[in-house]
Amino acid sequence: MKIVALLLALGCAQYTWAHGEHPPQVAKCQKAKACTESEVLAGAESAIKLIAAKDPSKASFASVKPSKAELRDFAKGKEWVATFNSESQPEGKKSLFVFITQDGVPLFC
Fold it and tell me: Do β-strands 77-85 and 95-100 pair in parallel, antiparallel, or remain unpaired?
């Protein structure tokens, strides 16, 4: 009976509340939870391509290099914010901000 319960528990373990749609790590950081600005800027270029693939209205940003990356404090902790500026966008939509965790994972809505 214990073996049956164990097998049932192991079989059901993969069907938890988690999902497999987590974004990939884009910034290849040398230290865990300690990405540098240059690592985030390189990763932001990969992240913007993922964003453009999901949202065609952001496609013009895929050819733009990020202008800066800043480590900012938020309620849940620090995150990197990479800024992209595209002159081909209409007024009020010329900037796009990509949020990246300190582990190098982009945060998508």
Answer: antiparallel
- For residue 58, what are its two tokens? 């952001």
Q: Count the neighbouring beta carbons within 10 Å of the beta carbon of residue 95.
A: 12
Res. 82 pLDDT band, cuts 50 70 90: very high
Strand-strand pairing, 68-74 and 77-85: antiparallel
Give the closest residue to 82 by CA, choosing from 23, 26, 41.
41
Q: In this structure, which amino acid lies at residue 24?
A: P
- Give the pLDDT confidence of 87-106 residue by residue, as tens digits: 888 888 889 999 998 888 88
Burial class (CB in 10 A: 0-12, 13-18, 19+), 21: exposed
User: Using an 8 Å Cβ cutoff, are 48 and 61 in contact?
Assistant: yes
